[in-house]
Amino acid sequence: MSNNPFVTVVTAENFPQEVIALSASVPILVDFWADWCAPCKMLMPVLDKIALEYDGKIRVAKVDTEADPELATTHAIRSLPTVKVFRHGVAVDEFMGALPEQAVREVVERHIERPADAQIAQARTLAADGDSAGAATLLAKALENDSGYVRLRLALAGYQLDSGDPQKASTTLREIPLAAEHEPQIKRLRARIDLALRTGADCDPTELAKTVERNPDDLTARTLLAECLIQQGEQMETAMSELLEVIRRGRGDDTADRARQTLVQIFASLGAEDERVGHYRRLLAQALN
After folding, report:
1. Residue 31 contacts by C-beta under 8 Å, 6 or more apart in sequence?
2. In sequence order, which residues have a C-beta less than 8 Å from that of residue 121 and are 6 or more positions away?
3. Which pTM value belongs to this model?
């Protein structure tokens, strides 16, 4: 086993101290491995090298699943190697298999404290006070000095979108590493951006609602009303209901298909765990039948 000062052998006995407690200070990469596992042995020198290079900014905790099967069971380990990243006492990230060194580095970089973290916190305060544009300006400046920081890029794109500039948000997300593309948070943000680019924001919901009230079969007005309401987060369910009505009344025409595509993008932007998604998916299936 490694004599690296930043790599520790962890058991069920010292896991609370070496992982849970210590992760309050630095990210802990918990490597679940076994002696019979060839990919585990391929990954070990990569983790050892990275831990040494980061000089204490991260630590690696190695769990021999043969010696401590209970830890593997507790943390739902189903394949080896599995590496879970712990921060502030909880697992916040993971990967499986003997990833290439660069891919492992990309995972590590997502959790290393950086100077931009203070600016991200400041931007969060600005946005909470209603100044998303100011938050975006602050983080755009920070990105000039740390363009490879995924967390910074993700926060910036979110504030750009919230301040009404989905085109800039889309451009910001283009530089996200391929290894992070399929993360749920990034997929949801990209779906929100695509939705904003698709629907636009130049509309008057009050006038559109009056038009629909006068002529409920004006599907173009209904679609525009829904797309307008999408830009107002608290009106998302009303927007989805309007899109469903377009689908029901349009019965397969181009306007109904546009409404269906927009509704599917809404589902992607909200995420599968959102209760509204399951409900409206069922309603969509009924409307299409």
Report:
1. 40, 43, 44, 47, 60, 61, 62, 63, 81, 83
2. none
3. 0.58
Q: Are 199 and 234 in contact (CB under 8 A)?
A: no
Q: What is the pLDDT confidence band of residue 268, given thresholds at 50, 70 and 90?
A: confident
Task: Give 119's contacts (C-beta < 8 A, 6+ positions apart).
Answer: 138, 139, 141, 142, 152
Q: What is the pLDDT of residues 193-210, one digit of tens each?
A: 888 887 665 678 889 999
Residue found under tokens 């948000």? 169
Q: For helices 219-230 and 184-199, give the axis angle rounded to 10 degrees.
A: 140
Active site residues per annotation? 37, 40
For residue 107, which amino acid is it? V
Cα gap 289→285, rounded to integer Å: 6
Helix 254-270, helix 184-199: angle, nearest 10? 150
Q: Which of 73 and 149 is assigned the larger pLDDT?
A: 73
